[in-house]
Design brief:
Blueprint lengths: L3 E4 L2 H14 L1 H6 L3 E7 L7 E2 L2 E2 L2 E5 L2 H5 L5 E6 H6 L2 H13 L1 E3 L17 E3 L10 H7 L4 H17 L1 H4 L8
Parallel strand pairs: 2-6
Antiparallel strand pairs: 1-2, 3-4, 5-6, 7-8
């Protein structure tokens, strides 16, 4: 079965608004509008990004569709997986997708607008993007790109991503 979409229930927009007010005030100040969609598929993962299953995908809506009344951006969410998440995981996922959306400013710090006076946006890329093959890492060890990337991640941000390995995480009850 093909992927189908529906407008996400109001909880998603309310959660996203709270995250925008706390972490993404530029989106609010620029007046960025966002549509939230749920994706469904009886055949497995309904969303893919770069050929890989994705929990959610953010995109900037093109000018032609904005003129027809769509929002400035759209976040599609795997509905089944979202429903299985804790509230904290839902917030983390929405925060991740909202981080991709960046209002563009001019040299004076003013928000740039398109020909219909809607905020112009750019996509923020991930700080890290990995494409790893386990078998290559096993064959070449520390000389493999996989291990080089892992070492860079660990050395630069190990405390953020591997707190148990760096001894910085305080466990409950300790």
């Amino acid at each position: 079965m093909a992927t189908t979409f529906e407008i996400a229930h109001e909880e998603v927009a309310a959660r996203a608004l709270a995250i925008i007010e706390k972490y993404h005030t530029d989106l609010a100040k620029a007046g960025v509008t966002i549509d939230y969609l749920f994706a469904h598929s009886s055949a497995g993962q309904p969303l893919k990004h770069g050929g890989y299953p994705a929990l959610a995908i953010a995109r900037i809506v093109n000018l032609k569709d904005r003129v027809k009344g769509l929002a400035d951006a759209e976040i599609s969410i795997d509905a089944e997986r979202f429903d299985e998440m804790t509230d904290e995981e839902k917030d983390g996922l929405l925060d991740h997708e909202l981080t991709h959306l960046c209002p563009i400013k001019d040299a004076d710090g003013e928000y740039k607008r398109d020909s219909h006076h809607r905020p112009r946006l750019s996509m923020q890329h991930h700080d890290y993007q990995f494409g790893w093959f386990r078998e290559v890492a096993l064959r070449h060890g520390r000389n493999s790109p996989e291990c080089v990337q892992a070492r860079i991640l660990y050395e630069k941000d190990g405390q953020a991503f591997f707190p148990l390995l760096t001894g910085t995480l305080e466990l409950e009850g300790s």
